[in-house]
Write a structure and sequence with these properties.
Blueprint lengths: L1 H22 L5 H12 L6 H21 L3 H17 L7
Helix pairs in contact: 1-3, 2-3, 3-4
């Protein structure tokens, strides 16, 4: 039951972020597709991780779009992984 609830929350957040990004024109359809592929690349971690990785993909894409610097999304990904390492089990199932 808890996994279903977390999965629903993660997927709801993913849909919300993608909707906002596409409606406001903040992200291109290509960037949204790339973030979904980034999320699917983390499929082994479970559906919740797919949702969070997709959201991180959108955030990293936005970080690059705003700064045009590659180190920004790399640092964001590193920070997310470091936070996940210290606060959660890594790379265990959620």
């Amino acid at each position: 039951m808890a996994l279903a609830r977390r999965t629903g929350i993660g997927l709801s957040l993913l849909v919300l972020f993608i909707s906002i990004a596409s409606v406001t024109g903040l992200m291109s359809p290509g960037a949204i597709a790339a973030s979904l592929l980034f999320g699917l690349a983390h499929f082994a971690g479970g559906p919740v991780l797919v949702g969070f990785a997709s959201i991180l993909g959108l955030a990293c894409g936005l970080g690059y779009y705003v700064t045009r610097r590659l180190w920004v999304p790399v640092a964001m990904h590193f920070g997310f992984n470091l936070t996940h390492l210290f606060l959660f089990t890594y790379p265990g199932p959620l």
